[in-house]
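Hello,

I think I submitted the zinc ion job twice by accident. Can you confirm which output corresponds to this input? Input:
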Amino acid sequence: MTTLTHPTEAAELLVVRARGAPRERGRQIGEAAAPLIQRMLATYRELIESSQARLKLSWAAAVIQARKYASYAAGRYMEELTGMADGAGATLDDLLVLNCAEALVSDPPPLKCTSLALGPEWTEDRHVLLAHNEDWWPQDEHTLYLIHAEPEREPPFLALTYGGLLPCIGLNAAGLAQCCDSVYPTDSRVGVPRAFVARSVLGASDLAEAASRAAHPDREAGYNHLVINQEGDILSLEASALRHAVLPDQAGALVHTNHYLDPGMREIETDPEGLTRSRLRYDRASELLYDGRPHSRASLARILADHQNSPSSICSHPQEFRDPLDQYATIASVIVDLSEMTLHVAPGRPCSSSFRSYSM
Ligand SMILES: [Zn+2]
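Support: Only one job matched these inputs. Its output is below.
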């Protein structure tokens, strides 16, 4: 791992190197990131316990629910998570709750993200770029770190994660990069947690394998998985528990936020206020993408920092008047340059943070 120089110093994130069999790899991650994992645990425990009346869920009840999901998630990623728990001095039950949080918090806050994928026709230097704002509970800004892993049977990867979550945002040595956007289907069920599905996509060797992993037949719900390869071919796969759709590539570039774009997927979408906010971000990101071409990492950083339609803007700031469960903010901006195999991360809000570069 080399850290490239950058004119403005951003907070340096912990980079955890991990290798070997899944459990051993997980243990290495858990040991190195133990304070961050413990901090997320304390935060989520407090969020759930303090919202018991609204969620009708205690931490103990969340553990029981998470175990049901976990019974569908055996295999190497469960081993990895078991190792993370061991290394961090936590229980597997605790980390299962973190990785099932989106399913367990059935009164979902308007968590949101914005993603853009650009093939070579759209960039100044013909680089292939993927840009993403990770919008989540604001407290998670303090538990960010990077994992550079060399699994035994999958391509090495470099990914951003936070707390005790399995990594899913990043790039791998097969030349794939992924980011995920939450979506809101009505057909969710007990099944393989979406965090495990997203983690498995990060281990794919090509777009076809990424698509088949994203469409795991036993998944509990789904994300939009936005995946791009070094040629600039884009896979945007919208999933729910029972349906999925692959979006047509819009001439080599694609934007996604948190509402379904495929007509068939829209039939099973819930329609809370949060999706209007998602449409505003989608329209704004699309406008900036089309009007601003050709793009560079710098222009994508400006898109990720855009404030139009605030508080429903692409760069999202914490709104502390909201109930803690309903608070959200951009906790990190990520730009992957697949032509250079580099990952650029701005912790916190990109309007006031700066990007630091990491290479595989
Ligand atoms: Zn901002």
